[in-house]
């Protein structure tokens, strides 16, 4: 391994070093604040390293292959940058979530959250870089294994409400079982691909595919099984059953993590897999993806339609959004399709992060400590995740409602938000690729989506009918959470009004 | 050169695999024979002791649902984790001379990471048996 290769994986090395340092730090200095600070510093250092490696890459203009397992190119670095920024936001959200629920003097260990967050990031980044089925499997497992305890993390907070702990545990166990099943299918798929091609690195498989007279059924079944695993991680429709339960039960920052980084990394892998192996030319695979995409758009939006729980609603809407993203993906190996996927993913990550962040912070503010000696926290309302809780939010906290409204409008694809530009890209890509059926599904899905996003918006504007004005208490949120939401809304508007900045950046990749 | 099937062909597969298929059917037939014979030839009776578990002729005592300490599982899983890591060290040990200095450095990094994990577990009290002890952190 040369110095050049070592430099290319600098972001991964920094993350690994940060994890080790945090392990030792937590062992000898139990402090929630210090652990959060170390995690944030590690993430910022990794972001800086991403820029550094990107500068080296732009000088040599050739992707760097590291030991045949990883391939570092500009596009992968762009994905990494996006995920690292998302992780930074999740660290802030997690701090707000854990501060109220964990009492370090007692048995809970809030520091482990940051360790697991960094491990998920390590897995996600290795997945984005991976160029070999071995590294794909390894990094996907690293990501999933770190996510299981994170999904059940409410149990660690000894002050969190009892019901929240039970839901969180359910979420973790459900994801563990289903994810293990899907991973087993994917592993079998990889074995079949190896049996058919005699190679596991993407280059070798691509060469074998090109040499074969026609696609052998063994290879096809292997690729299909692998696609099922990826569809499970992306919660595309026949494999989406776990999504609402897991998203609802998990702590809100972890829901944001699994919805943004967890799905985004798999999209990045899918993009590289299809481009490197030239799978766009196999109609069976693109047909499967198209069917899953149409089903995701329709079923996801229909299920969200009558949903009263906000987290479940956002879970269903995230199913639909990955369906939209696949439309751009399916127009084949073209620069425009690539650009559309990247832009839509950026829009999806920013918006989803903001929506789950706002929901989580609102729920945190509704927590109040009980008077009893146990000191357990309970919610002041029946459930802060129900739509009724959002009635009149605009009058209780105008700026918070404004941020959430911007996120919802972006999810619905209203102009002046980043979501509109993303949706525009999807339409343009669909028209360019002549994908009429998919476009019809996009239109129908968007129309249904508009209804439930706007209904939630309307609920926030409604005044409390009976309560007098002076009894309304405002929503109190920590400064860090406020700054995060406002900056996310700012980015959403800037890229919505001036999309050229981001388009130019993606274009140079 | 790798000897790999370019096409999944059932006919040649059956040709290669027929002994295995015959063996599989033979196993099934043997099981059917054993179960069937004992079903038809065996005697049937319903006594008071028919449904009791048979344990070498001794009447069993108490319930099998023994509650084990949760610490047992924790220590067991930690043992499995570190045991698995040791396997990687074995594979390094047999190729110690071939891998040279680079291999040594890589193995050292691996061991340091394991050590950091062990320190973390120890300081957080995962290795304490029998409840939390008073510790001054």
TrEMBL record, chain B:
Family the entry assigns: Belongs to the complex I subunit 3 family.
Stated name of the protein: NADH-quinone oxidoreductase subunit A
EC number(s) on file: 7.1.1.-
Assigned keywords, A-Z: Cell membrane, Membrane, NAD, Oxidoreductase, Quinone, Translocase, Transmembrane, Transmembrane helix, Transport, Ubiquinone
Catalytic activity: a quinone + NADH + 5 H(+)(in) = a quinol + NAD(+) + 4 H(+)(out)
GO terms, molecular function: NADH dehydrogenase (quinone) (non-electrogenic) activity; NADH dehydrogenase (ubiquinone) activity; quinone binding
EC top class named in words: translocase
Annotated PANTHER family: NADH-QUINONE OXIDOREDUCTASE SUBUNIT A, NADH-UBIQUINONE OXIDOREDUCTASE CHAIN 3
Ion transport in keyword set: no
